[in-house]
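Quick question, first post here. What does this chain look like in 3D?
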Amino acid sequence: MKLSTKCRYGVRAMVEIAKNFRNGPVKRKDISIVQDISSSYLENILITLKGSKLIRPTRGAKGGFVLETEPSQITLYRMVMALEGSIAPVECLDNAAVCRKSPQCAVRKAWKKLYDAQTTTLKSITLQDLLDMENEKDELAYSI
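> Answer (accepted):
Ran it through. Tokens below.
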């Protein structure tokens, strides 16, 4: 599976919003600067995340974006699905009808194993886990 730039940047934006979960909204401009993502490109990503009910905008001078739920409740799978759509390595996993060999295809069964492993892994990692991983990285950077 090769993730699109939209997906990679979208997950980074989610991490940035999650960092401020208890502190209030994060402005698009701030996400853009900290994560080095073009503001106009980020706008499209945030629209997708909003449409998937992962974030919501808040209005006003102190407005910005907030998570719809706690970081521990949002999986990497949910974020990737919102930004990528299907993560199936081959089309026949999403729609067996595209290939008449699907029901007895041994190779399709192998692709299914790959897909299941990806799905299991993505579902096992939450946004909170990503925050924790980032904090671990920071702790290592400052160790003596």
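The radius of gyration is 18 Å.
The mean pLDDT is 92.
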